[in-house]
Amino acid sequence: MPNDSKLESKFQAELIKELKTIFPGCIIQKQDSGRIQGIPDLLILYEDKWAMLECKRSEKASHRPNQDYYVAKFDDMSFCRYIYPENKAEVLDALQQSLQSNRKAC
User: Which of 7, 37, 40, 66 could in theory staple to 57 by disulfide, Cβ–Cβ 3.0 to 4.6 A?
Assistant: First the structure.
């Protein structure tokens, strides 16, 4: 299992760098699943919007208890998805559409 955790943490670190490039000036907060079991990994704050992402090492990676609940709940509130290498481009496209829609004029 340490190998799987290493793969997920490497994917997450690379994803954070990419998110900061796509959304300049965003704040990305890594969440503490020890406080609320199942809470998604990343909170992204961008301008006047927010989103959450639950990182997985692969499409077939198991979901922990409560993860499906929180992903659905936060998606109803704003934007929340599972993200893994196989769907990364699709999720990032949807995230861009969500966070950059109806942007405030400067």
Answer: 7
